[in-house]
Amino acid sequence: MNKKYFFFDIDGTLTDLKTRKIIPSAQEAVNKLQEAGHFVSICTGRALYKSEPFRKAHNFANMVCNGGHGIVLNGEVITNEPIDYNKSLAIYRQAISLGYGVLVADDDSQKVCAKDFTFYDQVGPRQEPTTYVIDENYDPEDKGVIYKMYISCPKEEENRLTLLDTVGHMRFVPEYVMFQHDDKKLGIMKMLELVNGNPDDVIVFGDDTNDLAMFDERFYCVAMGNGKEELKEKADYIAEKNVDDGIYKACKIHGWF
After folding, report:
1. Are residues 194 and 248 in the same domain?
2. pTM attached to this predicted model
3. What does each C-alpha distance from 21 to 14, 16, 44, 204, 225 come to in angstroms?
4. Closest by alpha carbon to 152, among 95, 112, 111, 88?
5. Given a cut of 80, is residue 1 above it in pLDDT?
6. Which of 42, 133, 144, 182 is the most buried (most CB within 10 A)?
7. Could you tell me where the beta strands, DSSP code E, fall in 89-162?
8. How far is CA 41 from CA 14, 58, 211, in A?
């Protein structure tokens, strides 16, 4: 069999969203694919610091992370790029002037910085582990780099942030908007360049709308049975639900191991 290049989303694809743990049959499938000589990689929107423990714990030497702007190859971090600094700084200034709270991640960690408690007062604590550093003298220009940014702008008020679309962003909750990289396909293409892979030999597995970016027509695209309908509509194959051994069964049916 020709060598294939597999890219797996983590949350809801490799892992059970209820337990946050990798599905045993998915781990077995990953191991078998590697033994068969295929290239196997994680492909996640998670930041590097959040995805590295998972990668190391589950026998992945390769990973696309940070929404396509982080690359780990053979266990070595090749790149981990922040978001556009000047554009992000302009959004920061606009949000502050409009009275919104802003949290800035100026390094690759769970730490976020702010000049006051406005974000916390308007939104409450974030839903994931976060270390808050509040300093009335804080200014992101002092560090000169921004990896992520969170603004307490409700969805119905997005039109007030006229610079919103100048930087990639997403929203998982209605209370605030996140600015971060979100282009998994870009990361896949970067990885292929590094390993001399062919896009026609790429196989991607995903479940959510942020995986739409990596469902390229040149790739063979597998949507999990528990995935979003928008993704299934673009898929070449719809696997069973991930918790029903969907990854393993799909690989077996296609003869990939």
Report:
1. yes
2. 0.94
3. 8, 6, 15, 20, 18
4. 95
5. no
6. 42
7. 102-105, 111-114, 131-134, 148-151
8. 12, 11, 15
Number of domains in the chain: 2
pLDDT tens digit sequence for 170-209: 998 999 999 999 999 999 999 999 999 999 999 999 999 9
Residues 174 and 89 in one domain: yes
Assigned token pair, 152: 């307490």
* 204 to 43, 97, 117, 156, 248: CA distances (angstroms): 9, 42, 41, 34, 14
Query: Are 119 and 91 in a shared domain?
Result: yes
Structure tokens at 235: 């898929």
Measured CA to CA, the distance from residue 91 to residue 83 in angstroms comes to 12
pLDDT in tens, 81-135: 999 999 999 999 999 999 999 999 999 999 999 999 999 999 999 888 999 999 9
Given a contact cutoff of 8 angstroms between Cβ atoms, the answer to whether 37 and 3 are in contact is yes
For the chain, counts of helices (H) and of strands (E) = 7, 14
CATH number at residue 96: 3.30.1240.10
Give rounded-to-5 percent helix, strand, coil for the chain.
35, 25, 40
Amino acid identity for residue 151 in this structure: I
Q: Are residues 119 and 233 in the same domain?
A: no
Cα separations (Å) of 139 from 7, 32, 144, 149, 228? 38, 49, 9, 13, 39
Say how far apart CA 6 and CA 214 lie, in whole Å: 12
Can you give the residue range of the structural domain that contains 161? 85-179
